[in-house]
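Weekly sync, protein design subgroup
Attendees: M.S., D.O., the rotation student, P.L. (late)

Item 1: inverse folding check
M.S. brought a backbone from last month's batch and wanted to see whether the design step gives back something sensible before we order anything. D.O. pointed out we never logged the input encoding, so this time it goes straight into the notes. Structure tokens as presented (429 positions):
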């Protein structure tokens, strides 16, 4: 294996960039605030190729699979898995927030608040389910790609893949062309990811410079509670799932460590969506399963977001001194099972979902959301990382259950990863 200097390693570069970003934000907060365009530009560069990569991966996966019954079976299993695991995440969040009680003793009137009008203007009235469902079907194919709407691109891609598969031999020339085109887009994403350290630096410098670590102190107990819950969810719930399906959580986490660090720096799981699709194929999942599960999971399998939402609702109840009954907390669980899916892909969706949930419960004042704005940015990294980890595991679970998982490919990928790590350790010494 070709030797690689430690400073050329992406993990080292991103960690260094995050550290420098934190320092700039702390020492020169005004400079940190000006770094926002750097992080935004990197995320935009990734988003530029997300829609075509999703389209190509799904179309090629379905066209090569050929069997439409199997496509439906994979999609069905994925949705059942998403619902079960996100419900577990919601339940764990409710249990921990009731045990730790991070909102007890806090006075709403004495805490710093933010402007929530942009989130509650529509969200406070609840989610329009008819609009949500009809929105999945794009009125214009080009518009769906131009806006980068994952759900609309997903819908069109499945239809295109089914149509292409139905052509049989006549469609082979199109499949060959799309196969080569996908290589071009993955090459592009390879170039874009070289700027990942810059993106992580810009996003982190802005976050620290704009919000400041001082904003964490009053609501620090909530933030710690959320992170502890996410840790337990990954290393208990997801670990049990991994063991049930015969793969190592630890090896998987090490395999996607670069993606985890990029999400940590940018607070956006979308920043690594193309890389995750590539990595899931490299670790043994078939292209068809990866194409269906990963993009769908980005809208419907939000484990980290589910944990945060359930804890945030009960936290606000504790701040306002509202003693929620068991029945009310079960209602919260049922409402969030729906609303956490309903605002998928919407900007500020976390606050829209919270506003909708509080409006449905009618026992907690909506203005309580203003408390969460100060610490939300610092918890968004955790949510995005848990969402990322959960989607990768969902892909492997569905692939294994459908015999669409190549064990030899997985062993090779893990072996190469370990060899690379040994080489890096030698270089560091």
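Designed sequence read out in the meeting:
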């Amino acid at each position: 294996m070709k030797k690689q200097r430690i400073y050329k390693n992406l993990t080292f570069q991103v960690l260094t960039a995050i550290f420098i970003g934190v320092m700039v934000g702390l020492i020169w907060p005004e400079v940190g605030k000006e770094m926002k365009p750097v992080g935004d530009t990197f995320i935009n560069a990734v988003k530029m190729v997300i829609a075509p990569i999703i389209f190509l991966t799904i179309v090629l996966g379905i066209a090569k699979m050929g069997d439409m019954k199997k496509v439906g079976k994979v999609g069905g299993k994925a949705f059942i898995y998403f619902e079960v695991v996100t419900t577990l995440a919601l339940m764990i969040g409710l249990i921990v927030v009731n045990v730790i009680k991070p909102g007890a003793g806090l006075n709403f009137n004495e805490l710093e608040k933010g402007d929530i009008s942009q989130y509650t203007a529509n969200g406070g009235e609840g989610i329009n389910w008819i609009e949500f469902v009809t929105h999945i079907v794009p009125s214009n194919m080009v518009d769906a790609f131009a806006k980068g709407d994952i759900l609309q691109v997903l819908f069109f891609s499945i239809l295109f893949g089914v149509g292409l598969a139905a052509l049989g031999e006549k469609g082979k020339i199109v499949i060959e062309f799309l196969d080569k085109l996908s290589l071009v887009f993955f090459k592009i994403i390879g170039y874009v990811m070289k700027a990942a350290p810059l993106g992580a630096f810009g996003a982190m410098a802005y976050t620290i410079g704009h919000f400041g670590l001082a904003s964490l102190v009053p609501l620090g107990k909530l933030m710690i509670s959320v992170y502890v819950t996410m840790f337990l969810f990954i290393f208990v719930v997801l670990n049990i799932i991994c063991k049930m399906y015969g793969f190592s959580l630890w090896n998987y986490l090490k395999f996607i460590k670069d993606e985890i660090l990029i999400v940590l720096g940018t607070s956006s799981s979308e920043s690594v969506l193309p890389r995750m699709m590539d990595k899931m194929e490299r670790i043994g999942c078939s292209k068809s399963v990866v194409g269906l599960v990963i993009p769908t999971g980005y809208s419907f399998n939000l484990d980290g977001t589910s944990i945060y939402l359930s804890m945030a609702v009960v936290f606000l109840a504790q701040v306002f001194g509202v003693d929620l009954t068991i029945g009310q907390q079960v209602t919260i669980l049922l409402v969030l099972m729906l609303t956490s899916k309903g605002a998928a892909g919407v900007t500020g969706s976390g606050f829209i979902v919270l506003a909708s949930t509080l409006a449905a419960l009618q026992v907690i004042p909506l203005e309580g959301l203003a408390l969460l704005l100060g610490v939300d940015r610092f918890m968004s990294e955790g949510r995005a990382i848990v969402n990322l980890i959960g989607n990768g595991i969902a892909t492997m679970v569905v692939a294994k259950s459908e015999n669409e998982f190549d064990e030899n490919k997985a062993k090779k990928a893990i072996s190469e990863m370990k060899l690379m790590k040994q080489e890096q350790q030698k270089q560091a010494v």
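Discussion: The two ends are 18 Å apart (CA to CA). The CA atoms of residues 57 and 269 lie 18 Å apart.
Action: P.L. to compare against the previous round before Friday.
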